[in-house]
Amino acid sequence: MRVESLLQLSGLYGVRMSTAAIKPSTGAEEESLEPFLGRGSIALISAIVSPVMLILLFAAAALMQEASVTGTPLGSPGGQLGMLVGAILIIGLAHTAMWSTIGIIISTVWAGFFAVLLLMRALVAGVPANSLEALLCWEQLPLQAFVILLTALISTRSQRRRRRESEPVDNAGVVEVSALGTVAFMFALSLVFLVLASAPSTITPIIMNDPSLTTRPRGEDWLIILIISCILSALTWLATKSVIVVQLAAWLVMLIPGMFIVPLISTLAGVVATPQDPQMLAISYSMPVIGVYGLMIVTATYAIALMNRIEPLPEEPSVDEASADEAYAEEPLG
């Protein structure tokens, strides 16, 4: 009896040890990074990086708008570099959601600060204070950045909680993915048309280098801004159902056309904005903004995609398993 008990115990622990030995190393690697990426470290990094990231994006959008409406759609390397650096910083902050969402929270707070600042300037002040404010005022880019980051934050925390609590997550089938893709592309196309419809129809403030000539948004403009905010929020939230369809819609309808295709075609064809062509003016004003929307959605929803890698919390042993463990532990050996 003693020998059989020892064999059973050794076999049991052998199975447990072998099971532990074949566990993937990704969890251990993530745990080894946790001391370096605690909440305090992530919060400090985000507090420093977030304002720089947002200012880079806003300034890059303004630079690209100014270059586009003055006849050189691809003539702003500073704006393109700012977009690239801003995208890298957003992806870096989104990746910290694997350990804590405090980084995205701080980024959202900073975005809200800039949104309130520009909103108050647009509602209270008579005219923009500088050219950057004038180029951002008509589409309220800081407000839309806040909407995207806030929705991504809420969606990420929701997905994180579901993964941690092992709640069932249904995998979308072909029909559901097709429906979600249709909705996502409709949202993206609606954004493009709304931004085009709300674009300024004059480049006088830029040519004269006088921001005071810029008119602030009126009643119907605020309505379009509100609708754009709702669509951006809905499109970002759709990533909780399928990240891939949102990424495709943002890449194919917003980011690639806004940043590359339309500026390249207009440059090669020699069709650039002129004061007598309101359609080209609208396109020149809008394409950089649409590209920034796509860039922020693509990078912010990366945090939602990462939530699928979070391991669920370990389940408590059942009554039968607990009784069996107690029986092995209490069985006399001699």
In short:
The chain has 14 helices and no strands. With 334 residues, it is an all-alpha fold.
Topology:
Elements: H1 2-21, H2 26-33, H3 39-69, H4 77-95, H5 102-124, H6 131-137, H7 141-164, H8 174-198, H9 204-207, H10 219-237, H11 243-269, H12 278-300, H13 302-306, H14 319-330
Helix pairs in contact: 3-4, 3-5, 3-6, 3-12, 4-12, 5-7, 7-10, 7-12, 8-10, 8-11, 8-12, 11-12
| Secondary-structure-derived class | mainly alpha
Mean pLDDT across all residues, rounded? 82
Reported for the largest beta sheet, the result is: none
Overall shape: it is globular
> For the CA atoms, what is the radius of gyration?
26 Å
Binned strand content? under 5%
What is the share of helical residues? over 70%
Entry keywords:
mainly alpha, 334 residues, globular, disordered N terminus
Walk me through what this model shows:
Helix 3 runs antiparallel to helix 12, helix 5 runs antiparallel to helix 7 and helix 7 runs parallel beside helix 10. The chain is an all-alpha fold. The protein is globular and about 60 Å long. The longest helix has about 30 residues. The termini are close together. The N terminus is likely disordered.
